[in-house]
Design goal:
Protein name: Aryl-alcohol dehydrogenase-like predicted oxidoreductase
Strand content: 5-15%
Order of helices and strands: HEHEHEEEHEHEHEHEHHEHHH
Shape: globular
CATH architecture of the domain at 3-201 and 264-289: Alpha-Beta Barrel
GO molecular function: oxidoreductase activity
InterPro entries: AKR, Aldo-Keto_reductase, NAD(P)_OxRdtase_dom_sf, NADP_OxRdtase_dom
Strand order of the largest sheet: 1-2-3-6-7-8-9-10
Number of helices: 12
Largest sheet: 8 strands, parallel
Distance between the termini: 28 Å
Keywords: Oxidoreductase
Pfam families: Aldo_ket_red
Helix content: 25-40%
CATH class of the domain at 3-201 and 264-289: Alpha Beta
């Protein structure tokens, strides 16, 4: 299955998380709804949310903003990770996934979700059980396709035996290359679309974040090693040639990062998240940018897993995911 055949808009979707979760203070409800509606109006046709984001509030916002256009866009959400009594909980048990799906449908004001991911692998529940439950929800018409997030190639293969896995969502960008170890190749073999979250390296590849002390106290990047004071200056130095190349090509740094991903594999969909309407427009325009082999080679050498400073996650964060590591 190609990205074109699964998603309404083939290569760029909108990650909705940060209108209400993770990066600084949430937007006020009216501002968030206006931003989501603006994204639809400018041409976004793939919106990605989750049970976890904003403790369910993100799904509420997406539902309120886009319910009148429900049949005109591709809706993705996630289950298996949620805020429970103020604490994040990973729970892939069949009964829990079913309940979360019903709750998501209500919050999103729809009778079906086009793509429903298992947000994280529950180490206490065999992937076959979780995937099988989602496969049953497809048969019942509540979801259109089953996806998995932040899993290894081995987990993908096991799940795919149980029910067709139509999409894998994991972090992928110039500075996070883990999917290149095995998952991208496995996706190609199985006909599974790869969905790249944080394709702009959590804002790093935009070139805007120069001073990490300016981050909001609740910004999740404060707890990510690559943004720590001992690593970030070294990472910033990697941007010099990158920003010069973007200027030479005549595109924004964000567009360069998104075009690199598309050039890597036509089966890749990117879902950059932003609350800025201007950034939404810039990102969507990246679909018009095509890089040549020389430019791709330069980018591969400029920023990669061998020269980036700091790990992607802390040990506690790493324990929550199932992806291969270099």
């Amino acid at each position: 299955m190609s990205a074109q055949s699964l998603f309404t808009h083939p290569h760029i979707g909108l990650g909705c998380m940060n209108v209400s979760h993770a990066y600084g203070m949430p937007l006020e409800e009216n501002q968030a709804i206006e931003a989501l509606q603006a994204a639809f109006e400018m041409g976004y046709r793939h919106f990605d949310t989750a049970t976890l984001y904003g403790g369910g509030n993100n799904e509420l916002l997406v539902g309120k903003a886009l319910k009148d256009h429900r049949n005109e866009f591709f809706l993705a959400s996630k289950c298996g990770m949620a805020m429970v009594n103020g604490k994040k909980e990973i729970n892939g048990r069949p009964d829990n996934l079913r309940k979360q799906c019903e709750d998501s449908l209500k919050r999103l004001q729809t009778d079906h979700i086009d793509l429903y991911y298992l947000h994280r692998l529950d180490p206490n529940v065999p992937i076959e059980e979780s995937a099988g439950t989602l496969g049953d929800l497809v048969k019942e018409g509540k979801i259109g396709n089953v996806g998995l997030s932040e899993v290894s190639a081995d987990t993908l293969i096991r799940a795919h035996v149980e029910t067709p896995i139509k999409a894998i969502q994991s972090e992928y960008s110039l500075w996070t290359r883990n999917p290149e170890i095995a998952v991208l190749e496995t996706c190609q073999k199985l006909g599974t679309t790869f969905v790249a979250f944080s394709p702009l390296a959590r804002g790093f590849l935009t070139g805007v974040l120069k001073d990490i002390t300016e981050l909001d106290a609740k910004d999740i990047r404060n707890n990510m090693p690559r943004f720590h004071a001992e690593h970030y200056p070294n990472n910033l130095a990697l941007l010099n040639d990158y920003l010069a190349l973007a200027k030479d090509i005549g595109c924004t740094p964000a567009q360069l990062a998104l075009a690199w991903l598309r050039a890597k594999d036509d089966n890749i969909v990117s879902i950059p998240g932003t609350r800025s309407v201007q950034h939404m427009q810039d990102n969507l325009a990246a679909t018009q940018l095509t890089l040549d082999a020389k430019q791709i080679g330069l980018l591969d050498e400029m920023i990669n897993q061998n020269n980036v400073h700091g790990t992607r996650y802390t040990a506690a964060q790493q324990a929550e995911i199932d992806t291969e590591e270099f």
